[in-house]
Amino acid sequence: MIEVAIMLEGQNGLTWERWQRIARAVEDLGFAGLYRSDHYTNANPPDKESLELWVSLTWLASHTSRIEFGPMVSPVSFRQPTMTARMASAVDDLSNGRLHLGLGAGWQEREHHNYSWDLLDMNGRFARFEEGLQIISHLLQNEEPLDFDGEYYQLHEAVLLPRPQRAGGPPILIGGNGPRRTLPLTAKYATEWNGVYIPPQTFAERCALLDELLVANGRKPTDVRRSLMTGLVFGKDQADFDAKMAPRTLSAAELRERGLVVGTGNELVDQLRAFAEAGVQRIMLQWIDLDDMTGLEALGTAVLPQVQ
Q1: How far is CA 142 from the centre of its chain?
Q2: What is the Cα–Cα distance from 11 to 96, expressed in whole angstroms?
Q3: Are 285 and 232 in contact (CB under 8 A)?
């Protein structure tokens, strides 16, 4: 019915010990995939451990055998696009074709300021992002050398060698809900669109718009896979759920209206079915407590048998 994956906010204290433990659990429990953010830090202090994205994915590629994985998402503001293409191709080969290459423009002001990356204004940010998408797409999908004379990047006879083992390289995922910028770029360059924190009705509306944009670009609606990344409040029983809701100011109903998946096992299953009916093929649930392995196991046991 719907594929269920786990998504981690890597800037929230991700260390090698936590990453390795969670990865093995996600694989063993039967989740479809494991995804993580690409941030130095959060928008507000305190700063916490933040295991570097591509180093962690390289380990994952060679220490798991089944799950799909990738960044949600890797911003072009952090890395020159030819380097991102090289790393993504190599990691995908190492994993035997399990990487989803999530790409983004960058958004978080604090980390860009703190670590000397140029975020740009909104127009510049998306103009640079499109140049990055053009370069990465070409290098992954074409053998011909690339000459590129953009505002932000200039290349001369650039090639990607060795060629990706998977035809066309890893699929490109673009995340975000914006109808003016994000969805048009998705329709031109991506093979997967990832909505973020939106309820089923809004997801269905964005899917319909994306269908129109794909047709306008000479593509079929089925050319782009549909997924969603959203928050999760899960209780293995009612008492556990009530305890997790106690510090929150919004009710369970209000959180669901904002697109979060909230409740005990059967309640989550009902919400996942609604997302599937809205067009979600894979949902990435944020797992915030990186040390709650008992809860992660309970989630897999309660939900996966009912939705797969």
Answers
A1: 25
A2: 27
A3: yes
Beta carbons of 170 and 101 less than 8 angstroms apart: yes
Half-sphere exposure of 150 (CA within 13 A, CB side): 18
Residue among 95, 3, 111 at smallest CA distance from 54: 95
Exposure string (b/e) for 128-145, b if CB count within 10 Å is 16 or more? bbbbbbbbbbbbbeeeee
Q: How far apart are CA 30 and CA 18, in angstroms?
A: 18
pLDDT at 308 exceeding the cut of 90: no
Return the C-alpha torsion angle 228, 233, 238, 239, nearest 10. Answer: 170
Q: What are the tokens at 75?
A: 């911003």
Strand partners, 199: none
Give per-residue pLDDT as tens, 81-106: 999 999 999 999 999 999 999 999 99
* Domain map (residue ranges) of the chain: 1-65+231-308
The pLDDT tens digits of the residues spanning 100-125 come to 999 999 999 999 999 999 999 999 99
